[in-house]
Hints:
Blueprint (H helix, E strand, L loop, with lengths): L1 H9 L2 H20 L17 H10 L1 H14 L2 H17 L5 H5 L10 H4 L7 H22 L1 H22 L11 H17 L8 H24 L5 H38 L4 H15 L3 H14 L4 H11 L6 H17 L2 H16 L6 H13 L3 H13 L4 H17 L3 H20 L1
Helix pairs in contact: 1-3, 8-9, 8-10, 8-11, 9-10, 9-12, 10-11, 10-12, 13-14, 14-15, 15-16, 16-18, 17-18, 17-19, 18-19, 19-20, 20-21
Amino acid sequence: MDLALTHYLQTGLFALEQPLYRDYLARAERLSGKSTESIPEPQTLPEGHRPNQAAIVMLDRGFGNYLDQNAHLLFKPQQGTRWKRQKQQFLEQYLKHLPAYALGLVPQAAQARHFITYLFAEAVWLSLLLNLILLGLLAPFIEKCFGRASVLFWFFTAGALHALLYYLSASAAHAVLLGTSGATAGLTGVFLVVLAVKPSIHLPDMRTRCTLGLALLGLYSLKSAICIYFGLSDALVLGAELGVMIMCAALCILLFGSSLAGDQQTQGSDLYGNDDPDYRHRLQEALSEICQFNFDRAKQRIKSLSSDYPAKLGVSKHRYQLEKLDAGSPAYQEAVEQYINLIVTHNDYSAAKSVLKDCVKRAQQNQTITYGILNKLFRFFLAHSDLRKAEHCYRLLEKSACPPHLLTEAVDVLRKEFSKRQLFAKAEQYSTYAQELQNRGFIL
C-alpha cells in the first residue's frame, strides 16, 4: 500500500487526477443532492495529510470508471495518451494487487461480493490492531452464550449491514470501505444486550454488568477517536457503525429475547431475587471465590448454600458446574441428581440441554454415566416432544449399566411416538431394536 501510494504521488498521477476528482465530486453532488467534501489543491495540503488525500483518489473505483469513460473529454490528446500509459502501468504494477482495491467496497462501483470481502482487508495496521483487541474481548463471551457458530453469524451479519448502510448513505467523496469496524460494532451491540439481560456466573450483580458495559463503550469510543485522529475514519463511517450496533442489538432481542428472558426468569430471579440478606451475602462470597479460582472453598460454600436452600435452581446449577471438575466423585453424582430434579421441577429446557451435552461429552471420553440421570432426561425431553434429544438419551442409556426393562420401555415409547408422527421408517427401526432386546433377554 505504501509503495503504491509513493509511486502514485511521485509519478504525478495524483497531481494530474486531483483537479478532475474535484470536478467529479461536484458533478456527483449536483446529481445526488448530497454535499461532498472537496479535495484541496496538492500544494495547499499539509505534508502529513497529502498521502491520505491521495489514497482517497487512488482507491476510488467510481472515479477510475469515470476517467476511463470520459478520458477523451477530460484530457488533451497528448495528455490523455500519457495519462493512459501511466495509469495502465500503475494498475498492472501496483493497484490491482492491493487487497484494498480488490476487496474494498466503493459505493459507486460496488459488486455483491464487496459487501463481505471488504471485511478481510485493512488499510493500516493500527485499525487492524484495535479491531482485533475488541474482537478478542467480545467473541468468547458471545460464543459462550449462543454457541461457536453464533460468532460467525453475528460477524458477517453486522459486516453486511454496515456495508449496506455505507452504500446507501455514502457519496462520491468517501473512500473505499475496509476493515472489521462495522462487524465489531455489531458484536458490541449483541454483547450489551446479553450483558443486560442474561445472567452470568462471572457477573453476579447488575452493578458489575453496568460497569463492564460502560468500560466496553469507553474502549469502543477510544478506538473511534483514535481512528478519526489518524484519518482512518470519518463521521459517515462512525454513523454507520452506530446504526449497525443498534440494529444488531434489536435483532438479538427479536431473535433471542424470549430465550434470554426465560433464562433471566429461571436463573436470574432464582439467584438474585431472594430478599434474605444472609442468602445474598453467602452467594456473593461463593461467587467471589469462583472469580478468584478458589474452587475448593467455592464448592464448600455452594454446597452449604444448596443444603440450606434446596429449591434454588441457580445455586444447584453452580454446585453442579463446580462438582463437574471431578466428575467421578460421589459429590458430583449427588449434585447432578439434585440439579436434574430441580430442572424437572422448574421445567428448564435450556438447562436440560446443557446437562445432556455434558453427558454426551463424558460418554465420548468413556466415563461412566448413571442410568437414572439419563432416564430422567429421557422422560423430560419426551414431555417436551423433543424426540431427537430423547434418542440421544436412549443411545447413552444403551452404553450405561441400564436394566433391560428400562431399555425395552424406552424403545417402545420411541416407537409409539414416531408412529404418531407418521415417521414409519423410524418406527420400524425401533421395532427392530425391540426385537433385538427381546432376543437378548432370552439369552440372559
